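Regression test attached.
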Amino acid sequence: MERQFDQELNILKEDLLKMASLAEDAIAKSIKALVERDSTLAQEVIDRDREINLLEIEINNQCLKLLALKQPMAVDLRFITSTMKIVSHLERIADQAVNISQRTLELIKQPLLKPLIDIPRMAKLAQEMVITSIDSLVNKDSLLAKRIGGRDNLVDDLNDQIFRELLTYMIEDPRTIKRAIELILVGRHLERIADLATNISEEVVFILNGKNIKHPNQEK
Amino acid sequence: MERQFDQELNILKEDLLKMASLAEDAIAKSIKALVERDSTLAQEVIDRDREINLLEIEINNQCLKLLALKQPMAVDLRFITSTMKIVSHLERIADQAVNISQRTLELIKQPLLKPLIDIPRMAKLAQEMVITSIDSLVNKDSLLAKRIGGRDNLVDDLNDQIFRELLTYMIEDPRTIKRAIELILVGRHLERIADLATNISEEVVFILNGKNIKHPNQEK
């Protein structure tokens, strides 16, 4: 009985890893499509979102079944309930990649505004945050999980920089406004991905330590 | 034992209602502060976020306790696990109100760009979606919950309208760009609130019917 439960927890962890790697892949491809102005790849990201949505439903059902049949306690209970939240974060991360792809399809219709340097850099950081947050869970490394929140500031700084640069384009030439705003929104989608990765890392710390770090100093 | 469990579920529902009304109040006040250029009120929204964060932690702990001690099944199990997700949506809704207030504090430093008509209208819709989503749960009204998703389109349409109007301001006079972008972001915060209310309503349908409507036609 005990061993069967452990096996089922392992299946859950594998599915989580699979979902995280699909989400990471969606981010990478959405940015590749943006940089290379590749509408086929952008469309692929949009179409493959279905797979991630299905995995969310499947993992959720697995969790409910484990809760109902195995009545887990302490760290296992936290792991299962937090997994249900983590998969909804991963699903939203993939949604942001879909949003980026939709912006790409719009941007491709118009001439190139500028070569993209900071956006791919920001995407790389956001991607690493996603995969590290899940790695920290699988490796039970709460120190690693705690460090992820700090990376969020780097992403925010890059986003501010992108915003300010695009602002100067718009002020100099109003014909760039529409395209610049699309790129500003891509920056915000990446910022949201980093936020969601931070949410995941907070759940990981809660699973491992039973402590809420989302609102430090606010626990009664 | 059974009656004690029902009592604890009722306490959970009351806390959920309390949290939803705090979130609704935060949205209303953040928009009032924006329209009336009232920095004291904007700061109040930012400061009161702590209360909502505390409630999230408290409700989460209540849920974990119920899962561990009462081992609920079927609809009760779904209610408790979905409540853990709903409170995280409510917390994020309140965060969006904080974001709006931060934009307000920036906008107040600059001259008024234009009288705000569509943003308060959009806020009203988003607010109603939040409160209706929680009402549909408390009244076990899955039809009401299902209708909330449709209102999301109205909010998106208003947001597009706001975006296009502000775009014309920016094109005509580059000095308005900074302020216009702040208002575009307010629109996006409200859009996020409507999305989060839709997420809540999807959880409500899942609790009541055991069916996932988030990704229709995707359940295996």
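Expected vs. actual: identical. Helices of chain B lie at 2-36, 39-70, 74-108, 118-138, 142-172, 177-209.
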